[in-house]
Amino acid sequence: MSIAGFFILLAIAVLLMRIGNKLVPLVMPTGRLKTIGLGWAGGFLGSWVDSVWWQFGPEVAGINLTAAALGCALFILCLGIAPFIKILLGRV
Hints:
Blueprint: H1 3-23, H2 32-53, E1 59-60, E2 63-64, H3 65-89
Helix pairs in contact: 1-2, 1-3, 2-3
């Protein structure tokens, strides 16, 4: 991954964090840096999986934008609802 790819993933993570805070603030993980870090990791994994398995969507600086946005959103969502799942299972 290049420096440009790093900053593209960072921009996607920040953008999705802001959108998520406006739409579903209760589900977002606490802490801005934690959320951005999780989003960056999800975007990286989404783009990596896309490059290994299949190719779809536009690619800029080695980062597939569609897969990175989907990976970022899903990673943040899954880790954001984890406390609610623990409560539902009775493991507080």
